[in-house]
Design brief:
By secondary structure, this protein is mainly beta. Helices cover 10% and strands 58% of the residues. The longest helix has 22 residues. The protein is elongated, with a radius of gyration of 34 Å. The relative contact order is 0.20.
Length: 271
């Protein structure tokens, strides 16, 4: 009887490791489990809206019909800056490689209020009081973005092509209609823009950014032609022209961005 009990005990002890092995969780090969997403990710497309303050600088020179033939002697030279509210939409796509984030972004801003300044002409042309005025009907850009991600915070630089449509006036009235206008012309302009900023994720799909950009819309020469000058009285010859008008701006704005989550989620291994 004792031998039977001893044999049963030995058999039980020998079988215990096999039972324990059956109960232990299986070992999953390292290549089966995908790495988990740690911290914030900046991959994917996004859409946002921004508002800020824009400082326009409008400068150049103005001459009458005689001065147009001799730009060295314009009626007056103007150079002034004005600030205005800026608002618009932007969209982009970006990809993260370690800490480096590369992307492409486009934006389109709405019209701004009139920018104006009064100047007194030279004695040679009667010292008229002219109002120089600039209107931005719309403006936008297409830019590359390069940044470094620090978990929920992204520091970035941006630069690319800028464009917009502006109306310029050198006037001696209220810029309504054609009577009294010395110059009034609209034109689409192209230039370049550069800037930098910081983007911070508030949640997985939402972030807020602060951005500064400098934009140069280039030089526009408006000759003494009907599309950029009006006669003061019916039958009079064209009496004025703009020479080397230039526009640039500085802008600081805040944007709220929605990120479409397109990066992969962690994979749960099956066993």
């Amino acid at each position: 009887m004792g031998r039977i009990l001893l044999g049963a005990l030995v058999a039980h002890l020998l079988g215990a490791p096999a039972i324990a092995a059956d109960l232990a969780p299986p070992v999953i090969p390292a290549h089966v489990v995908a790495p988990s997403i740690s911290g914030a990710r900046w991959d994917g497309s996004y859409l946002g809206a921004a508002v800020g303050l824009q400082f326009f600088r409008n400068w150049g020179s103005h001459g009458n019909a005689a001065g147009a033939l001799n730009p060295a002697f314009p009626d007056y030279a103007y150079d002034y800056s004005r600030s205005t509210l800026n608002y618009g939409l932007y969209a982009g796509v970006q990809r993260q490689f370690g800490r480096v984030v590369l992307g492409l972004e486009a934006d389109l801003d709405g019209p701004s209020r009139l920018q104006s300044q009064t100047y007194i002409g030279s004695p040679a042309y009667g010292q008229n009081a002219y109002i120089q005025r600039l209107t931005a009907h719309w403006q936008g850009s297409v830019r590359a973005r390069f940044g470094f991600a620090f978990d929920h915070t992204l520091l970035f630089a941006t630069g690319g092509l800028a464009f917009g449509r502006f109306t310029h006036c050198s006037i001696i009235d209220d810029c309504q209609g054609n009577t009294g206008h010395v110059i009034k012309y609209s034109s689409a302009r192209m230039g370049w823009t550069v800037g930098f900023g910081i983007d911070h994720k508030l949640a997985d799909n939402w972030s807020i950014k602060v951005e500064y950009r400098y934009t140069n819309f280039g030089t526009r020469n408006c000759n003494n032609t009907p599309n950029c000058a009006f006669p003061l009285l019916a039958g009079d010859p064209l009496n004025a022209t703009d020479i080397n008008n230039r526009v640039e701006s500085h802008i600081v704005r805040v944007g709220v961005t929605y990120h479409f989550r397109t990066y992969p989620s962690a994979v749960v291994a099956r066993y």
